[in-house]
Amino acid sequence: MGNLIKYEFRKSWSMKGIILVITAIFEVLFLIGVFMQKETFLAIGVTLLSMIAVCSVFIIGIFGIYTLSRDLNTKRSYMLFMTPNNSFKILGAKLIENASSIIVVSVCFVALAIADVSILAATYGEFKELFQFINALLGESYYVDSYRFAMISAASVVNWISTVCLGFFAVIICATLLNGKKYNGFLSFCIFIAISICLSKLLGVFIDDGLDFNTTRVIIQIVYYAVVSVILYVASAWLMDNKLSV
Amino acid sequence: MLKSVDVTKKFVGKTAVDGITMSLEPGHIYAMLGPNGSGKTTWMKMAAGLIKPTSGEVLYKDTPIGIESRKEIAYMSTEPYFYDWMTVGDVGKYYKDFFADFSMDNYTDMVISMDLDMKQKVKSLSSGMMAKLKVAVTMARDAKVYMLDEPLNGIDLLARDEVMNMILDAASEDKILLISSHLVEELESVVDKAIFIKQAQLVGVFDVEGLRMTEGVSLADKYRQVFSNLVLEGIA
């Protein structure tokens, strides 16, 4: 399985390289703004860094789904399905590559955010007080600290990984059960949306939908989406093993 | 060793393979012959485990085609299938990573003899060079079954000789070689069995020498007899 994972990383490294270069450019803008006291650069840098942080995690997930689609629907599928690996390994390698990339990129952006906030706080003394002021305004239920930030980030990442698994599942349904049928792409997208809504409703059975921070609720969310990911992975790999013709 | 038991494959609105039953034994080189769309490629893909039959089954050593059979069956598709980012060298490394029977030394020798460059990107290869690369990487495996789908397509005359030599080098008493091609005359001197497929159905498996001895026809003549309405002198 190690070799499969290695080649999955190889397929996505140019896209990750592009994200890295763009992030570096935005970071330079931010640092110019901080150290040369150019507030326009600072504002643009912060805005673009926030955008790329969110977008990159989405892009990696969507790129993973796109790569799977290409691997199932073009002749390069032979590169995977000629090898003596079953679908659980092939899909597992894709999932491990994608999930670990999402986690690593998220951690890197969090680390970069902490570093940039520290630089801001060191440069502009009043910056720390600004955060404290905002938190005081938000109150006990909604204030943000490192613990809450980490928990919400973890839940978001697990949620996004489960969405990627659902994307994999939809692509595999398109290539198996709906293969050769009219509008199979559109139908599989509808299936994706329908399952997504059902999963969200089902989560509502276990937790309320309050906006305030609650550790138990976040943990239930993480466990729920982790279980959903595993179920979708098993169902997808079973479909590939039993119904897929490439 | 490789059996097809009443194998049928239906696509939407079309039956690509219709109830093919046959058995391929080691020690033979088989030609799989038939016009375009007769079902040769689909049958090969089922034997390679890439396509699942609608009904029937393909057995390798009496076991349905699956992960284990892929370790011993080397299949070369007629279409290019390598990743765009790969170089000729990367293709060899990829096969080395996944197939225990792959020899990098043999691959390197074949690449050199076919005038390919290890550093060249596969997406920049001409169709002829791509065809040579596919043959080289497939034949560098020490497989028990080789299935080559149109290996001579797009290859010039001299390179064809090299490809045929490679194929002959791989032949042995414990191996099955199956080659599909439209170039019947090219295969005639190499194969000893011929599988004729017409309109998704098996016409028959013929012994090439037997055709000459009993029917007095060459493989090419038999091909014309089976697939063409044209009546040739001495055959009708």
What this model shows, in words?
The complex is a heterodimer of chains A (246) and B (236). Chain A has eight helices and no strands. Chain A has helices spanning 2-35, 39-73, 78-81, 87-123, 126-142, 146-175, 184-206, 215-243. The longest helix of chain A is centred in the middle third of the chain and has 37 residues, at 87-123. Chain A is globular and about 65 Å long. Chain B has helices spanning 40-47, 67-70, 88-98, 104-113, 127-139, 157-170, 184-188, 208-215, 219-227, and strands spanning 2-11, 14-24, 28-33, 55-60, 63-64, 73-76, 145-149, 176-180, 193-198, 201-207. Chain B has a single domain, classed as 3-Layer(aba) Sandwich (Rossmann fold). In chain B, β7, α6 (157-170) and β8 (176-180) form a beta-alpha-beta unit. Chain A binds chain B through residues 3, 6-7, 10-11, 14, 75-79, 81-86, 180-181, 242-246, and chain B through 11-12, 45, 48-52, 67-68, 70-71, 75, 77, 79-83, 85, 94, 97-99.
